[in-house]
Design brief:
Blueprint lengths: L1 E6 L16 H4 L5 H12 L14 E4 L4 H16 L4 E6 L4 E5 L3 E5 L9
Antiparallel strand pairs: 1-3, 2-5, 4-5
Length: about 120
């Protein structure tokens, strides 16, 4: 199963559920455990090219074998929940139309977002 971690509260204006690693609120925390986890991800997880996101419709999903990444996200979730944040762990067998893939993740447009053109 592919795994995605999002804040349970939708983003203002878009009503989309923001992935934890893409949320700007926590990316700048340098000295606490969340900051350490963000630094680890910046060093160890490739940033997909912007074209992979197809006009901001595509989403990032961890591959099932990305165990170290998933474990670090679980650590982050525990901290965030202790601080009052609600986080959802989403799972799927088919993330959609894949636009990017590397060792740890895929970027995919959800099935509800794409339609084959004739």
């Amino acid at each position: 199963m592919y795994v995605r971690f999002v804040f349970a509260k939708p983003e203002r204006g878009t009503n989309r559920y923001v992935g934890i690693l893409h949320d700007r609120r926590y990316g700048g925390w340098g000295t606490d455990r969340i900051g350490e986890i963000y630094v680890w991800f910046r060093k160890n997880l490739k940033r997909p090219p912007l074209e992979a996101f197809s006009q901001a419709r595509a989403l990032c999903w961890f591959k099932p074998e990305a165990v170290e990444c998933i474990d670090r996200m679980v650590d982050m979730i525990r901290i965030l929940e202790r601080r009052g944040e609600r986080v959802w762990v989403l799972r799927t067998r088919c993330p959609g139309l894949e636009t990017y893939e590397d060792r740890h993740q895929v970027v995919a447009i959800p099935a509800s977002e794409f339609v084959e053109q004739e």
